Amino acid sequence: MKQVATGVHQLSIQRFVNVYFVEVGLAGEWVLVDSGLPGSEKTIIEAADKLFYPGTHPQAILLTHGHMDHAGSAQALAEHWKVPVLAHPLELPFLTAQAVYPPADPTVDRGGSLAFVSRFFPPQSFQLRDVVQALPTTDADQTVPYLPEWRWLHVPGHAPGQVALFRESDRTLLGADAFATTNHESVPAVLLQQAEISVAGAPFNYDWQQVRQSVQLLAALRPQAIGCGHGPVVQGPEATEGLQRLAEAFPMPAHGRYVHEPARLDANGVAYLPPAPTDPLPGQLKVAAAGALLLGSAALLLQKQRRRNQNKYPQPQPREPRVRRTGKAPQ
Known about the structure:
Layout: E1 2-5, E2 8-13, E3 17-23, E4 30-33, H1 41-51, E5 61-62, H2 68-71, H3 74-81, E6 85-87, H4 92-95, H5 112-118, E7 132-134, E8 143-144, E9 147-154, E10 163-167, E11 172-174, H6 187-192, H7 208-219, E12 225-227, E13 234-235, H8 237-248, E14 264-266, E15 269-272, H9 280-312
Parallel strand pairs: 4-5, 5-6, 6-7, 11-12
Antiparallel strand pairs: 1-2, 2-3, 3-4, 8-9, 9-10, 10-11, 12-13, 14-15
Helix pairs in contact: 7-8
């Protein structure tokens, strides 16, 4: 577990996804930000007991958005701790099984290894109707419930109701998946937790213009400490300047399903999806499979031919050497 700033701790689960323990300001009172992958509840509970005290529980669970790696253990944790789950209203259709997120785009430019595996991700939706509540959006300064020193900012593009959290007093930013603090295009970078402020979750970004605007909004805050959904803690000038560089030279993909025409979402979920581009991988896999089948068939035929030849032209068996008899008695 690593400290982002005073009263803010990051727990990295399986070196891939982060959750945050944010103290309210009073002893033993805190809020959990995000809930990790499905099955992460035991790890999170044990970490909370160690950080605070055995049997502790948060005031609430705040989801920055509802993707599987952020909301996966929300139901189990909410039931264990008997606390509410908070999320932006635009996330509720996806957290109450009324809708599923736009399909991932495995063809997006510079999607890296994440683009490849995104083909195999199941549709993302959860049924949290009994525990989830809408984050209040009428407050002018967007104060975070239970966290009076923090405010939330709407940063869509990756998820329609994605929010980031910012504490003005020390300029601490929890950026969700508006961006990442490691290079998602590189498997070694993710596994080794190499720090680099970069685009997050490219195959799952449904509106690239919004993604860029969200990065620019957060960069204008000039944060001094950053924790995101993916990647290590980044602090000091590296945080401020790294995010500013990403905002100023945002690497807009050259191609992809949602690059030139975004998906449109509303309070009910997905309202429109642009046509899916041709994915070359299935065709390539079919060609590879056909080639493998052809090679296998050729090898089998060759083996059968060899057996026929062996039966037709049997190899002469080697003769046993003759023993010369000398007529002498054994010694």
